[in-house]
């Protein structure tokens, strides 16, 4: 044989049903780990979004922050309150969009992990009920 020609591939032994079932269970467990990570990220993003929407901010006057959160009270027309770019609606909608992407991804990976776990064959005798 020369270096230009490739050696023919010989098929290896076919994986057993038990090995395939184990591989599917490992994959389902791995995807479930990713779904938990996505769920934690989504929860953290929702917490940050709620903080931005509800908490007061700005310089303190009289023991309280000068500006109220966008959902906590009426909007103040003070220039100090308008300077915080993260409290303006375009930025808040961007944070909401990122939060929704993480939430949908968490839900999709959770469902995918459950489907993989359900499709993995159970251990034990491989007898299926007759219809």
Note down, in words, how this protein is organized.
By secondary structure, the protein is mainly alpha-helical. It is built from three helices and two strands; from the N terminus they run H-E-E-H-H. Strands 1-2 form a two-stranded antiparallel ribbon. A hairpin with a 2-residue loop joins strand 1 (57-61) and strand 2. Helix 1 packs antiparallel against helix 3 (89-119). The chain starts with 16 loop residues before the first helix and ends in a 12-residue tail after the last helix. The mean pLDDT is 82.
Shape: elongated
The ordered string of helix (H) and strand (E) elements is: HEEHH
Helical residues, percent: 55-70%
Task: Calculate the terminal CA-CA distance, rounded to whole Å.
Answer: 55 Å
**Low-confidence parts, pLDDT < 50 over ≥5 residues?**
none
Q: Bin the strand percentage.
A: 5-15%
Number of strands: 2
Number of helices: 3
């Amino acid at each position: 044989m020369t270096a230009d020609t490739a050696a023919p591939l010989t098929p290896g032994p076919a994986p057993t049903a038990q090995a395939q079932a184990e591989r599917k269970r490992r994959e389902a467990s791995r995807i479930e780990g990713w779904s938990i990570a996505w769920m934690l990220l989504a929860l953290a993003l929702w917490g940050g979004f709620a903080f931005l929407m509800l908490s007061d901010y700005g310089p303190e006057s009289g023991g309280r922050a000068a500006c109220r959160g966008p959902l906590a009270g009426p909007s103040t027309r003070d220039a100090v309150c308008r300077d915080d770019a993260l409290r303006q609606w375009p930025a808040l909608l961007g944070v909401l969009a990122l939060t929704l992407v993480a939430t949908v991804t968490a839900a999709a990976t959770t469902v995918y992990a459950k489907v993989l776990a359900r499709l993995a064959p159970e251990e034990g005798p491989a007898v299926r009920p007759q219809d």
